[in-house]
Amino acid sequence: MVLVFGSIGAVAYADFIATGVSLGYLYILPLGISAMFLRSQISYGLIAACVFLHDLFGVPYPSLLARITHNLTALAGFTFVVYVIQRYVKQRELLDNAVRKQRDQLLQDVELAAQVQRMFLPIRRPSTSFFGRNFDVGRTPPSAPDPLVRPVVILKVTCWKSSKP
Questions:
Q1: Which stretches within 2-126 are classed as H helix?
Q2: Is the pTM of this model over 0.70?
Q3: Taking Cα atoms as reference points, which of 71, 33, 66 lies closest to residue 52?
Q4: Is 46 in contact with 17 (CB distance < 8 Å)?
Q5: Which of 21, 108, 151, 156 is 20 to 30 A (C-alpha) from 85?
Q6: Segment (H or E) for 137
Q7: Is 146 helix (H, G, I), strand (E, B) or coil?
Q8: pLDDT per residue over 100-132, tens digit each?
Q9: CB neighbours (10 Å) of residue 86?
Q10: Crossing angle of the two packed helices 40-57 and 2-17, in degrees rounded to 10
């Protein structure tokens, strides 16, 4: 909020110092920042303040019609910029929410698939032979009450001499 008011004051001061040309278009920068971070009501209120400051510190106008036309053009331009930026920010927030929701659903699906897979895994695997020795690789009995608590599978290896030549 301080950044927005400070930058509006800086633009107003620069518009006051530059007597030959109007710097009112620079009000778009603080209005864009306010459209991203502040509520809509505050941003639209700042548009009115910027148009007033643009009229107050800008170059003198040759006629009343030129002054009104210039102020209405500034009002339309500032409002358009604020509206477009706020719409972009709102769409980005909606996209972030949708991605977060899909991520949470995917995580639930993966957890459910892991539970189903655990139901079909055998308790003991067949023994394998390696360099003439048979190894019986199987799971140890669960010591924790909930299998989701133990993400690492602890293996028990039993080795004995093969009777096969």
A1: 2-17, 28-37, 40-57, 64-120
A2: no
A3: 71
A4: no
A5: 21
A6: strand 133-139
A7: coil
A8: 999 999 999 999 988 888 888 766 555 555 565
A9: 19
A10: 20
Question: Bridge partners of 124?
Answer: 138
Task: Let me know: does 54 contact 22? Beta carbons within 8 Å.
Answer: yes
Give the amino acid at 155.
L
In the chain, where the domains are located: 2-99, 123-161
Helix, strand or coil for residue 31?
helix
The residues, ordered by sequence, that sit 6+ positions from 158 with a Cβ below 8 Å of its Cβ are 135, 136
Q: Are 40 and 89 in contact (CB under 8 A)?
A: no
Contact 62, 17 (CB under 8 A): no
Give just the sign of the alpha carbon dihedral 71, 74, 78, 84. Answer: positive
